[in-house]
Structure formats: structure tokens, C-alpha cells
Amino acid sequence: MKVYVVGLGPGGAEQITPKALRVLKECDVIAGYTVYIDLIKDIFPEKKFLSTPMKKEAERCRLAIDRALEGFTVAMVSSGDAGVYGMAGIMLEMAQAHPEIVIEVIPGITAACSGGAVLGAPLTHDFAVISLSDLLTPWEKIERRLAAAAQADFVICLYNPSSKKRSDYLMKACEIIMRYQKADLPAGIVKNIGRHGEEYHVMTLAELKKQKVDMFTTVFIGNSQTKIINNKMVTPRGYTNYE
User: Fold this and answer.
1) pLDDT tens digits, residue range 128-148?
2) Where is pLDDT greater, at 39 or 32?
3) Looking at the domain that runs over 111-234, which CATH code has it been given?
4) What are phi and psi of 94, to 5 degrees?
């Protein structure tokens, strides 16, 4: 009995790793959030699919466990990497009462990496990844994390920067960061990474504060060393110091 927890990457079929693709081909059942299932249905038309909407992650895991106990090999899919704001943790938690089920996590390309590649090289040095969603994390804790990362001069990558209920959260995040960083700090956004309609924009932190973004946008805020080179974000590691 086995459940794979598979990272699909940012969305395009060509960005699914060969190992993830092999696992999905070999499994009997593919489970996942409805939006992510829709991304891969056409690639695996012969598969049985189980999908649940957002906020039904625990139910999704129970369905996958039930199928595994029936003898099916199941793949639970997440966008990006399953271990980065994905389904790997909850799947391992939910399956702890069934040690007979083997859980294997298959890594994928997370938005920090795929979005960073679109923008250039913003993550070449130390960086922090912070989700602005307060659905599972209190906003007060998110504020402290933003402040700590800004004070430490980390490059910051923001996941889930906005939604209908959180339309001003990116603005709030920028205000917190600007307490410790300059307003002209390089920043960038990438929308629909690896999917139809992909686009990116490079700007300053002050300009970012005014941007309207959505849940399909990943935000990058540079550190004091980050530069804009030919409309790309670059955070030097310091290799030229060897010359």
C-alpha cells in the first residue's frame, strides 16, 4: 500500500519532473485540489481522479488513505513542491494511524525557484519565504516574521500575497518591510508562473506597495545588495570578490 505526495511544479506540464511524471503514470488514482487536478487531467485521461475544493485538505487525505487501504497506489498532488505549503505534511499526519501505508514525497519546483528564474536571479543569496495567508497563521505572527526578515536583510519571497478578503495585505507587508529597508529596494512580481498568461514586472518596494495582485502571483523583495540589471533582479552572492 502506497501514497505518493507529488509536487507538480508551477503548472506547465514541461515543468513536472521526470520522476513525478513517472509516478503519476504508474499510480492508479490521482487525488488533489480541484484546480490542480484540472491542470493534469488531459495528460492522464485514463486515471481515476479524486478532487476536493479548498479547505478540504483533511477530507482529501482521508479519501487517498481509503483508496490505498483498498489496494490502490495513490498520488496526492500539490502545485509547486508538496513540502512547501503543500500536502506532504498533512498527508504524513493523517496516515500515522496506518503504518502499513508507505508515504513517499516526490519533490517539485516551488514558486520561489520558478518565479525567481523568470525574474532573473533574486535568490542567489540568503532568502526567506513567507506566506501572507492568515487562514492558518495569525496575522500578528506573519507581521513578526516580515519584520525579522527585513531587519536581517533577507531577500523575501511572498506566497499568497492577496485575495478578495485580504486585498490590502501586500500593502501592509510592504509598510512593515519599509520600516527597516529603503523604499527604492528592488522588487518584482510574477503572475501565472509556468502557465498561460505568465508575466513579470520589476519595480521598487514603494511601487510594489501600490500593486494589485492575486493568489496566482508570487512576490519578490530584494535585500540591500539586490540590483536591477537589464530589467532583471539580481542579488549578488559575491563571487566577483574573488577576482
Assistant:
1) 999 999 999 999 999 999 999
2) 32
3) 3.30.950.10
4) -65, -30
